[in-house]
Write a structure and sequence with these properties.
two-stranded antiparallel ribbon; 14 helices; two-stranded antiparallel sheet
Length: 307
């Protein structure tokens, strides 16, 4: 399986919508591909962060949304509560009629087009009024329905998303979820800042520890990896941490990271460390790292080479 084909299945895999055979294929790919593993971890963290902001909506609204979605999929306009057809209703019906001849297999594309039209119409037609109040220019809206009301005006139903700023302590569950998601954002500056703040709490929860381990093993930015190492130092005796440290020592391309890993592994010496050091010293091309590993082996009364 290629990364391109895996990328198309990852969203379905995250929500348990794949067949057992497809799950086996993508799990095998994730086991071998760090980039796709980062992508699914980022998706899961973002999903957790979004779930924390979930609000209850009236059952009637859910029923209306489901009915509108089914109507769009079938190629028609959203169901309207009134028999009076306004301009928006007529436009949606015309769009539905336009896409209907494309056939049943292409009707989902027509539904997506209707949704896109609603989004861009709401976004770019300028600021409107809601109960006499102007919509903020940073609000993105998707119009759900437009109906005439009893007073001769118009009733518009829409969904709104606004950029938000939240504040709180890092031990707040909602703040922590956002921080965990930030540690896997595409922007390296955001990842550095979030890992910097999370590292002081690595011993607090398994979730923070796992995010730091993932950052150490997979992040492309050396600054993020070093911050993650700093946060994992109090957990140097943890078996999961030591396993990741051994992998990083053999695979990380930055000498500064490898030297810090050697120091961390030496804080809790065991037989497995000897084998890792002996394997590394034979292929290490950085003189400083090789000398540090050789010194560590001597301190453990172990031979430099393997026999």
């Amino acid at each position: 399986m290629t990364c391109d084909s895996a990328g198309k299945l990852i969203p379905l895999y995250a929500y348990g919508e794949l067949t057992p055979e497809e799950e086996d294929s993508i799990e095998q790919h994730l086991h071998e591909c760090a980039a796709c593993t980062r992508e699914i971890e980022r998706m899961r963290a973002l999903s957790i962060a979004l779930d924390s902001r979930r609000t209850e909506v009236p059952p009637v609204m859910l029923d209306d949304c489901r009915a509108d979605l089914m109507a769009a999929i079938e190629g028609g306009a959203p169901r309207m509560g009134s028999s009076t057809k306004g301009p928006w209703t007529l436009f949606l019906e015309a769009m539905g009629a336009t896409f209907a001849p494309l056939g049943r297999l292409q009707q989902p594309a027509g539904a997506l087009a209707l949704i896109a039209v609603g989004f861009f119409a709401a976004r770019f037609t300028g600021a409107g009024n809601v109960n006499g109040a102007s919509m903020a220019p940073d609000a993105f809206a998707t119009v759900r329905s437009v109906q005439p009301n009893s007073s001769g005006g118009v009733q518009v139903s829409y969904d709104e998303i606004r950029p938000r700023v939240v504040s709180g302590r890092i031990n707040d569950p909602n703040i922590q979820r956002l921080m965990l998601a930030a540690a896997q954002e595409e922007n390296p500056a955001v990842r550095v800042e979030s890992v910097e703040m999370l590292k002081a709490h690595a011993a607090g929860t398994a979730e923070i520890r796992d995010v730091l381990l993932n950052a150490l093993a997979n992040d492309s930015n050396v600054g993020v990896r070093i911050k993650a190492l700093e946060g994992l130092k109090p957990l140097a005796a943890d078996p999961a941490v030591r396993k990741t440290l051994a992998q990083v020592l053999l695979m990380d391309d930055n000498p500064a990271v490898r030297m810090q890993v050697v120091d961390m592994l030496m804080t809790h010496r065991d037989d497995t460390v000897v084998g890792v050091f002996q394997g590394l010293v034979q292929k290490e091309d950085n003189n400083s790292v090789r000398l540090k590993v050789e010194k560590a082996l001597k301190e453990m009364n172990a031979s430099i080479g393997t026999f």
